[in-house]
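Side project, low priority. Logging it here so it doesn't get lost.
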Amino acid sequence: MTTAAAGSPRTYQVRTYGCQMNVHDSERISGLLEQAGYVRAVEADGEPDVVVFNTCAVRENADNRLYGNLGHLRPVKDKHPGMQIAVGGCLAQKDRGDIVRKAPWVDVVFGTHNIGSLPALLERARHNAAAEVEILESLDVFPSTLPTRRESTYAGWVSISVGCNNTCTFCIVPSLRGKEKDRRPGDVLAEVRALVDSGVLEVTLLGQNVNSYGVEFGDRYAFGKLLRACGEIDGLERVRFTSPHPKDFTDDVIAAMAETPNVCHSLHMPLQSGSDDVLKAMRRSYRSEKYLGIIERVRAAMPDAAITTDIIVGFPGETEADFQRTLDVVREARFASAFTFQYSKRPGTPAATMPDQLSKQVVQERYERLIATVEEITWAENRKLVGQPVEVLVAVGEGRKDERTGRMSGRARDGRLVHFATGANGQHGATGANGQHGDGGLLAGRIRPGDIVHTTVTYAAPHHLNADGAPLAHRRTRAGDAAEAGRAPRTPGVLLGLPTVGAPAATPAPATGCAAH
């Protein structure tokens, strides 16, 4: 007996933890399941037939979070015979068979290198009534060849590489994602064009170390060339990338960013620490002077560039002087925002066995001082934009208070979050450029996710901007049309002989009488 009604397709739900790579992997998991005959679960229809956890192993509490969620799901599964639970991602790659030992009600465990096996593993587990564990040590097929169900009508992830050749002492990712493997530029650009053809306006090029792209085929300038090639794609309005590594960041990339009109002037450049001693212990092959030099050259070429970063507090052996140096670099770099982390010990990394592990109390106190410094700077940088015009790509789910405030939200070209008024309450906007019209109250209800709005910043907070005047202009887009129609882009892939489940597709009617024989 299964939870799906006889003859109806089985339903699925994917729960994602971790980085952008995991988010994009979950789009592939959804695409695979839907091509295999599953349909996405709707909350009103009750519990899904398949729940997939796509896990992260970067943080110390990742294990507890997974097993806690699996524990909550056990009684649900007991009440729904035929329900299946699958665990994939980095934690699955790390823990392997331990997951089934600790949570024997799990049906499938799959790793980062064999996402494409999931439909087959689910079917095999159902047939054999036993857990299936398959963890490959290296890719058997590049993930982007798999079908993908995109979550956004207006913005898409495009992987240009997977894996990482760096050996940072705090990071477990290389052992779980493997060595870097690069896609050919033609394959990347073909996927970008396919997304644009479906209405997508913004593409983010994705890799564990995105600017080392080309190492596998011997072209150290390949990433800059790829950015310039994206500039030649009609209909592609915004190009972003994440995350680069300072050691591989070259001046030709800065030039490509500055000279290619659709490449956004936003740069996420992980710092991790401002102390050269800590950077050395982290095995980060740059020092603070080089890092700040990159920032200086980026701003010389693009004065409006918004630069964001990652910072770790409390790395083993970090002294108060080391931490003060981090604060100094933060003040000098003037980041638009920063993702800040307390050092998290991960078994299997060199840092986990280093001496001089810091107490939780010391790390917490430094973390709070870092947050205060970052917010002081980001608020000051954001206040400089009050009164300035801004172009916003309207998004879904970016503004938690939008329903209450009557605003909508989206991202500026530099990546900043903007909450904007739609022109209700009798406000009237001016006519915009290129025949766009800011028709005040008439815009309320007409602006869709994926549309472009021009407005003026009226207020700045440390983490967002507000634009509370009437929009200056509004441009309806194909991405907005797709959002209004409820269409999510789907990138086709190669099914690789995987089984299908659920109700079979309807057989098309024969074109002639002969076709029936």
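Brief comment: The longest helix spans residues 360-383.
Revisit when time allows.
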